[in-house]
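Bit of a strange request maybe. I'm writing a small parser for structure token strings and I need a real example to test against, not something I typed by hand. Could someone generate the tokens for this chain?
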Amino acid sequence: MLPTRSRRFPSASSAREAAQKDGFVREVDDALREEELLSALRRYAAPVGAVIAAGLIALGGWLWWTSHQADVRAGQDEQITLAMDKLDAGSQDAAFAQLAPVAAEGDSGNRAVARMLQAGIATRQGKVQDAARLFNSVASDSSAPQPYRDLATIRAVAVTFDTLAPPDAVARLRPLAVPEKPFFGSAGELLGIAYLREGRRDLAAALFGAIAHDAGVPESLRSRARQMAGSLGVDAVDDVTRGAAPAAQS
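Reply from user aminoacidic:
Good idea to test on real output. This should exercise your parser:
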């Protein structure tokens, strides 16, 4: 029978030494990682901090600018409202003066509105050249909303129509006198008259007929267009009107 080998178990002191070694290694490893982190922070703290600071400054500036612009627009809106109140009260000169700061330094939309109102006041007062200058300033302002520019163009032509050369009126109005455009009726009526002044009766008749048949044009303007088309030999009476007439007479 083979002799039995005795098992050897690590002594308590050996286990303690191994645990101490593991703890020491972990402490050294943690210390190295901490040192690397501190070194990285020392190396990159300044540029990273600068980037963060710049971002915070930019965000703060944007928030301030947005709030400031909202306050400015609110102030401009109030000035326009006060001016319109003065107009309703019949104080045209006071209204014109009230609008001056907004007309000079307002944002694109409010500036256009203020100048259009000033031009309207000048028109009422018979100051044709002042009115035309203000309307033209809106029409040529590329930052103004397009509907304001189009309406200003029509109004500028209207207030100077008697002295404006027909070809000039045609050139300015033709791009706006197109069906489906918002100011087709108003621009088309003036353009039709300009055509007549040029002796182009066929173009005028066709244009008045188109206006008369356009349901999107105000009825008062359509009625005038029907009369003009009829005087030029174009029957612009709608079929609905034809059918309604006999019934009305009976």
